[in-house]
């Protein structure tokens, strides 16, 4: 019976909340009060809520309500309040923190010596994750909340992420992954002079079809088997024992490193990457003819049919005009052809690295806003915070299940000889 009454109770509660909000807005309109800042509507509501919660904490601490006769002779009692200004999501708010005569009250909501609530720290981190500089964050907080925040405070808040980043970067991983996408993006880091350095990104699709950013690594500027062995060995040391498919964009030295790390893994070049590379090498007026010609290659039912389609394209007028396109496909052929042996369900999943590219697009936007970073650690901090925002439950880039995953998983299990435990 209680379950049936719950929706009605929730509706009544929501109506009461709406009425309270409406009255507050009417009062603000009538008085001309602002939403934020000293005397602002949200500031006053925040103060009232905090003080009500602090009083409830004091009641819990003492064991009796304010003015309750039961407190007489209890050995401890209320002893007035002390004003304290804290930074909140609504800006700076001055609250009256209750005291007790013994001085044993330790408020949890507004801890002693704390000058900002956790939500305010998260606001700073969110702005930092979007690539805003310390100067930009200070200007934003001053303009929106009327709060002057020192550069040292912002640095302390963001530096506190270092331990969280280290824990995330070293967390254990599942033993078997159907597919891992690997890509690299380039950022500028000051090391004496400002230089461009690669950041390697690995995204796995787990047995449930959910995406997980496995790690971020800043390279020294060169790509090769040695560099990739460092990245892949770390993944193996964190628990990754086997990967069915490693999808990438033809990164130099990666296939050899994958084979050395996971001998049974299949290295697959992103088909979309090959198509885009071909389009960059050709005039846009020829794209309407080029796209169907390339589709005849990658949509072929067998490797033999794909070879024939490539030969026909090479001999065509379009192929003669753009021999660089032919060479692009020929150079990537050994990493492209595994795709042709996959059933349609698996082809849909590995067709491209669009999944990881959507994440890279967000990371590139973040780094582009900053221009360059003063250190490798500063770059990783910003990139990690951007990733953290992407993997929240409301984020659509990472947290959702891949389309048609169950069908693909069944085919993975069959095609890769039951290397996946689907029970």
From TrEMBL:
It comes from the Bacteria. Signal peptide: none annotated. One of its GO terms (biological process) is DNA transposition. Residues 63-85 are annotated as: Disordered. InterPro entries: Transposase_mutator. It holds the Pfam family Transposase_mut. One of its GO terms (molecular function) is transposase activity. The keyword DNA-binding applies. Keywords: DNA recombination, DNA-binding, Transposable element, Transposition. Belongs to the transposase mutator family. Required for the transposition of the insertion element. PANTHER family: MUTATOR FAMILY TRANSPOSASE, TRANSPOSASE FOR INSERTION SEQUENCE ELEMENT IS1081. This is Mutator family transposase. It comes from Streptomyces fodineus. The lineage of its organism: Bacteria, Bacillati, Actinomycetota, Actinomycetes, Kitasatosporales.
């Amino acid at each position: 019976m209680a379950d049936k009454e719950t929706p009605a109770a929730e509706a009544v509660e929501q109506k009461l909340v709406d009425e309270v909000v409406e009255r507050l807005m009417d009062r603000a309109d009538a008085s001309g009060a602002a939403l934020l800042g000293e005397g602002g509507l949200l500031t006053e509501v925040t103060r009232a809520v905090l003080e009500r919660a602090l009083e409830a904490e004091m009641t819990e601490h003492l064991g009796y309500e304010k003015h309750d006769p039961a407190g007489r002779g209890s050995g401890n009692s209320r002893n007035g309040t002390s004003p304290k200004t804290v930074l909140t999501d609504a800006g700076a708010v001055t609250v009256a923190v209750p005291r007790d005569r013994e001085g044993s009250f330790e408020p949890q909501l507004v801890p002693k010596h704390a000058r900002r609530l956790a939500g305010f720290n998260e606001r700073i981190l969110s702005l930092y994750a979007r690539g805003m500089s310390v100067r930009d964050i200070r200007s934003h907080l001053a303009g929106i909340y009327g709060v002057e925040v020192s550069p040292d405070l912002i640095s302390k808040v963001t530096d506190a992420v270092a331990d969280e980043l280290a824990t995330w970067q070293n967390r254990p991983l599942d033993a078997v992954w159907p597919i891992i996408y690997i890509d690299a993006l380039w950022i500028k880091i000051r090391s004496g002079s400002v230089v461009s350095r690669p950041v390697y990104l690995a995204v796995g699709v787990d047995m449930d079809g959910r995406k997980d950013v496995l790690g971020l690594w800043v390279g020294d500027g060169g790509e090769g088997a040695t560099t990739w062995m460092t990245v892949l060995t770390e993944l193996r040391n964190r628990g990754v024992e086997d990967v069915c498919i490693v999808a990438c964009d033809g990164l130099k030295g990666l296939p050899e490193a994958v084979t050395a790390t996971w001998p049974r893994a299949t290295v697959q070049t992103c088909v979309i990457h090959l198509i885009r590379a071909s389009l960059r090498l050709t005039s846009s007026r020829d794209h309407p003819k080029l796209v169907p010609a390339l589709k005849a290659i990658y949509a072929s039912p067998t490797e033999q049919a794909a070879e024939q389609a490539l030969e026909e394209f090479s001999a065509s007028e379009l192929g003669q005009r753009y021999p660089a396109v032919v060479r692009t496909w020929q150079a990537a052929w050994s990493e492209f052809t595994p795709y042709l042996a996959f059933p349609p369900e698996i082809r849909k999943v590995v067709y491209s690295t669009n999944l990881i590219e959507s994440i890279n697009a967000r990371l590139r936007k973040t780094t582009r806003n900053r221009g360059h970073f003063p250190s490798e650690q500063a770059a990783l901090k910003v990139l990690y915070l951007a990733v953290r925002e992407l993997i929240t439950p409301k984020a659509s880039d990472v947290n959702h299940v891949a389309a048609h995953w169950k069908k693909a998983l069944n085919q993975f299990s069959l095609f890769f000889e039951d290397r996946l435990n689907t029970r």
